[in-house]
Amino acid sequence: MSFTSKIALLKEMLDSAESNLRSAKQIMNELAGSPSIKSNYEKMAQNLNEISKEGDDVIVEGVFDGESIHDATGKQYPVPANYASKSKLIPGDVLKLTIKENGTFLYKQIAPVERKRVIGTLTYEDGQYKVIAQGKAFKVILASVTYFKGEVGDKVTLIVPELEDSEWGAIENILPANSPDFIDEE
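Structure (tokenized):
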């Protein structure tokens, strides 16, 4: 076996071991009833500015959890799926919500979390699209799947938080199931 082949095999073995450890930790956390990932975003939000006013507008800062933002007081505000999809929001991103006098909600991303990209396979189970990557199932927003015309089995470039564990990811691109073999899942 050549030196290059040994290096490639060693990398594959390490990637597999890391994936198995992540999966084992996730199962252990579920069994042990440890705090949910969502509660981590609630804790992160406690460091944000309290609700304030700018003229007649109410200003809220919150941490995105994949579906909503959590403000410093623990209150949740839903984020429209089209905005989250278009903006490629991922859990941990900090958003500013402006609630206008007429009730309009305006969101703006103000502090993106560090990101990484992974390649996985699009699946559909329990009424939810997911991407299987790095030994884990990441939920994705239906609006992203329909925008990219994704189909179960397609390879997906997914954006996920670099440092934090996450249940959600943002679709960056969808590669058809018949993509070249050199594009492999990591």
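The helical segments are 3-32, 37-45, 81-87, 142-147. Residues 28 and 34 are 9 Å apart (CA to CA).
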